[in-house]
Structures are given as C-alpha cells and as structure tokens.
Amino acid sequence: MARIRAFENAAEIASQGGVSAYGSSAGAGARVRGPLHLSTGQEAVPAGVCAHLRTDDYLTSTHRGHGHTLAKGADLARMMAELFGKASGSNAGKGGSMHIADFSVGMLGANGVVAAGLPIAVGAAHAQKLQGRDAITACFFGDGAINRGPFLESLNWAQVYGLPLLFVCEDNRWSATTASGPMTAGEGASARADSLGIAGEQVDGNDVLAVDEAAGRLVREVRARRQPRLLHAITYRVKGHVSVDAAAYRDPRELQQALQADPLARARSRFLAQGGDAAVLDAIDREAQEEVARALAAADAAPWPAPEAAFTDVQTTGAGLWR
Amino acid sequence: MAVMSYAQAAALALAHAMEADPRVVVLGEDIGRGGIFGQYQGLQQRFGTDRVIDTPISEATILGAGVGMALAGLRPVVEMRVVDFALCAMDEIVNQAAKNRFMFGGQGRVPLVMRMPVGIWDSSAAQHSQSLESWFAHVPGLVVVCPATPQDNYSLLRAALDCGDPVVYLEHKTLWGLQGEVDVQAREQLGSARTVRPGRHLTLVSWSRQVHACAQACEALAAQGIAAELIDLRSIWPWDRAAVLASCARTGHLLVVHEAVQAAGFGAEIAAAAAEATGCRVRRLGAPRIPVGYSPVLEAQARIQAADIAAAARGMLEQTR
After folding, report:
1. Whole-complex ipTM
2. B188 lies in a domain?
C-alpha cells in the first residue's frame, strides 16, 4: 500500500507542469503526460488480493491499474519510466499509464476500455483449464463495468465452463464523473454474480485485513475447486476520474467522510493499537519514498524511444509496414 | 490432389493444423455441429469438446476470450458466424486484439484467427449480407484475408494460423459449395496475389467472390478483343502492391472491383496507390452506398455482375482512345 501511494503521489506531481483542462492531457511541461487515473484511497484492494496470487497467476486490470500492477510484483522503476514515455519503460513507451503491463509477472495489461479486461481474463483462465495448469486468473474491474455487456457475458462463460477465475469488483462508487449508484439497478456486483450461481462476497475494501482474509479464502477456493468466485470490495475514489479532474461535481462532505476511512491510516492505527512499533511503519514508508525517488531519477535520465520504434511490434507478415 | 468444396477445404486446413499443433483450439457458436455453413464439419467428433468449443451467444467474449487464450499460449480460431455479427465484438477486435502487441511494448503476441464470413447471402437483407473488409484493413495490427477458391481457403487458413498476429479471415457466404482441387502441400505467404489470367490492355483487381464475376467478365472482354489481366489479391492487408503496380505499369489501366460499398471501400486505396505510383488510369466498381435489400429486385441493386464489370472495362478503354 505504501509503495502504491508513493508511486501515485509522485506520478501525480510529475504530471503537473503546464496548462491543462479536464479531459485533456497534462500540459507541455509535464514529465508524465496523458490521462493519469489514480487509485489513491483504493490501495487495500490490490494489496489484499494480490498477496494471494503467485507470479504464474494471471491478472487483468482497468484504466486505474497502477496499484494492481505493483501489487502483482511489477518493477516499479520500469513502470515509472513507462509513465514518462521512455524507452526503458515496461511497455517501451508505447502504452503509458492507461496500458501499463508486465507480462513477466503475469500482469496482462491495464485497459483503456471499461469492462474490456473481463473477456480477456476469461480466455486466460480457459487456457489455464485446457492446459491443466494449477494457476488461476484474477480480474479487476470497477463498479461502472458491471453495467457493460462483457461483465454479464464473462460471468456466464466462467460459470458455464468452470474456470479458475477470481472476479474482483473494485467499487469506488464513481463511473468517470457520474455517481454509480443511481446508474445501477439492483444490489450490484455480488448480487449479479449470485444470480448466475457464482458465489460472491462483499467486503470493506478500505480494510486491508478484511480484503486479505476474504481474498485469501476465495483464491484458495478458486484454486482448489476450479470454479469462479467474485469479490465485491467497496472502497472510494479519493481523486477525480483523471488527475486533472478536480471532481468539483462531488459533494465535499462525501470526500471528507471517505478520507476518515483511508486504508493506510486505518492499517497504521490498527497496527499501533495492537502494540506494533511505529518505527517499522516509518521504515516501510521511507523505503517506498526512496524507491520512488530512484525511479523518478532513472526515468528522467532514460532515453526516449527511437522514432522508428513506432513501426515495430505492429505485426509481422513479411510484407513490411506502410509509411 | 483431391477435389473438395471451399467449406471442406477450411475444415481440412483446421484439422491438419490441429493435428500438427496441440495449441490450436476453435471456439464459437454452433461449431460443434459443424458450423452453420459446415465449415467445421467433423472437427468436434475428432478433437473433442475441449478443442472445438461450443460457446454461448457472446460475440464480445468469444473474441475477447480468444485474445486471452492467445496471450496464455494457445492459438485460437474464433467463429463470428457472419461479419455482421462481429460488430458485436468490435472493441475486442479493434482495441484489444489489434493493439495488444504494440500497446504493451511487444511483451505479448496475439496469434488469433477470426473467421467472419462476408458478402451478399440470398435474401438475407441488411444485417446478413455486408462486406466490411475495408473496416478491418483500416486498423493497424490486423491482417485481412479474403480467399476466393477452395485451394486458397486451405492454404491461406494454414498461413493465417502460422501468422502469429491477429488475422481477420473473411470467407464468402456463397462460396461454401464451390468445388476445386486442393493441394495440401501448397504453402502460401500472406500478402501474395495470384494472377488468375494474364492480359495486356487492362488490369482487373479483385478478391473474394467478385474474382469469379471478374473471370466471367474477362471471357466476355476477350471475345471482343480485349485482353484483361485479372489479379486475385487474396489478402487486402497486406496487399500485393508489387504485383498490382507492375501490372498497371504494363497495361496503363486499372479497374478495381469489389462487392463492398464503393464509397470508402478498399478499391479506393488500391486505385489511389496505383495512380500515385504509376500514373495509370484508375476506376473503381463497387456497390452503391445502400443497405442490402431483402427483395431480389432490391438486392440486385447492390450486386456487381460480370456484365457491369465488362461494361466498366470497355468504357474505360474507350475513354482513352
């Protein structure tokens, strides 16, 4: 959680530096350009879920995917370089924040289209089943995604074929700049899963121990029984939809209330209440800050991609590419 | 060489690929019973329900699952029934399959073959008769294949499965019964055209079913002393620029013929490229920009017939004289 928070705070600062307006990219002086979707306040969900995943398990993510990617074990410095658009980035500068991915740890990509990661996760899990592997797939999506068709199609498919797949609805209560509640009929993700026979469970997504406990149980079930499960983690999006969105459309009292439930602060006070040593937590925070500082310096120093790289990794047909 | 139908050639190509490579799996609606056109006949009985997978009616998830399977090490073939229904999976085709390799910096490849039959299918009206190949050719990352013969439906499907990148594979809904000799040893490189018939007065370029209408037109033109060279492009991305331009340079005249709507069709791309490179005279012949009607009288308005092609070719040559 501390690494995710430190990474995103630094990325947000690096994205400032020029004129910007909602919906447009950050300004010309920014070192991180393009839309930056921050998961500040939601860190307990990826931390609690990914703690139970192995490197050979797959993960698909959303446009708000820094936390999922870091928690799955991706290299933080390569991620920062990617946000800077540098050649040393995890995606060689071709994807940026919204498409962050690290296949070497099974993280199959963040996605710019809401709900698009679900069918891909279904395919990855279906392959695991056909290949007879004991690895599983986890799939993060938001509360907005449950109103798109691929959500229903993917849950149906996973249940019909008995796939080793953990669906994780990271419910931050906002669909871009619209509150999700009034846009969603019924009780939401876990109720919809129940209707298809998929055991779903709701959890306080700002309580990292609660997420850890529920996710651990569900991952064990998915792994052992080769059946899908759904975790519905209720959290809160502290920032706007993208970093340049001040979220002026939202009642400030709602934010104030949510900040009281900040997952890092809650974890800290619980740790101390149980007799933990504050110095341990301070050291974790300091290490995260130092790691991020090193990543920023490396990303600044890294070279840009060669312009010719725009023509590689498109396709290989033997016919060359059009210029 | 065995004689077989266009549909049988595809089933045989898949069977041979599945024998050779356990990573090849097939998924789609109704394919266990052989597919709605018989193009999967016998495969599920032979390879089982784990490799020939009947799916729910979920085009987006069939396609998206294909992407996920490919990333996880399989080589999936997905069936969309008709190209018209593939539009239900457009995000998965355009934003996911086509972009994955590039967007993630080459970390993964998507060796996925997407079969989506095209073309006018008798009295099937506006949602079962479209030819949308130019949509896919427009998207970087996609390969677009349009076989016209049983031999090509064998060879090009094998080549598509070997490609390693996403291939939009467009069979024609009315060619399934077409019979022809198939040499299963023949191998094709994607992007190589076939000169169906040589000629010196005019170059005809086409693909898919219209190749056969063009061949008829060539006969009619030959009877009038016009020797048209007919090129079957076979894939429109990549397309065999070298073969087309060389022919246009010889004949000085290019007529591109396709079943798709002429406006913004792929014929425009070929005509423009040929005019830019060789200065030859160019003309396109495609359907008017109308939805395909149900009644045979209305449907005929969207069909390009051999007589139309011959007339267009003659008209073009007369203009020059």
Report:
1. 0.95
2. no
Q: What is the DSSP letter of B300?
A: G
Domain check: are B34 and B121 in the same one? yes
Nearest residue to A136 via CA among A270, A41, A65, A231: A231
Which CATH number do you get for residue B16? 3.40.50.970
What would you report as the CA-atom Rg of chain B, rounded to the nearest whole angstrom? 19
**DSSP count for chain B of H helices, then E strands:** 13, 14
Same domain, B73 and B215: no
Q: Across-strand partners of B2?
A: B182
- pTM of the prediction? 0.96
Q: What is the dihedral of CA A189, A195, A201, A204, to 10 degrees?
A: 30
DSSP letters, B102-128, are HHTTTS-----EEE--BS--TT--TTS
Does residue B153 sit in the same domain as residue B204?
Answer: no
Q: How would you classify the pairing of strands A165-171 and A137-142?
A: parallel
Q: Do A123 and B67 touch (CB under 8 A)?
A: yes
* Domain C-terminal end among B182, B217, B239: B182
Residue with tokens 């974890």, as numbered in its chain: A267
- Please identify every residue of B annotated as catalytic: 128
Quick count: other Cβ atoms within 10 Å of Cβ A288? Answer: 20
* Res. A21: pLDDT tops 50: no
Q: How far apart are the first and last CA of chain B?
A: 45
Please write the tens of the pLDDT for every residue from B272-308.
999 999 999 999 999 999 999 999 999 999 999 999 9
Domain that holds residue B285: 194-319
Q: Identify whether residues B215 and B160 lie together within a single domain.
A: no
Same domain, B299 and B173: no
Q: Is residue B120 in some structural domain?
A: yes
Number of domains observed in the structure of chain B: 2
Q: Which helix (H) or strand (E) holds B28?
A: strand B24-28
Are B240 and B166 in the same domain?
A: no
| Chain B environment of A313 (Cβ under 8 Å) | 101-102, 105-106
Q: In degrees rounded to 5, what are phi and psi of residue B307?
A: -65, -35
Residue B189, in any domain of the structure = no
**B10 and B134 assigned to the same domain:** yes
Tell me which chain B residue has its CA closest to the CA of residue A89.
Answer: B105
Residues 196-255 of B with CB under 8 A from A: 238
Strand partners, B54: B28
Helix, strand, or coil (residue A30): coil
pLDDT in tens, A73-132: 999 999 999 999 999 999 999 999 999 999 999 999 999 999 999 999 999 999 999 999
- Between the CA of residue A212 and those of B8, B30, B96, what are the distances in Å? 53, 42, 31
Q: Is B58 on the interface with A (CB under 8 A)?
A: yes
A28: closest CA of chain B, how far (Å): 22
Asked if residue B147 and residue B211 are part of one domain, the reply reads no
Out of A108, A125, A130, closest to residue B50 by CB: A130
Residue A107 is given by DSSP the state B
Instruction: Pick the residue from chain B with its C-alpha nearest to A124.
Output: B68
| Residue where a domain stops, chosen among B150, B182, B214 | B182
Question: Tokens at residue B13, please?
Answer: 């190509």
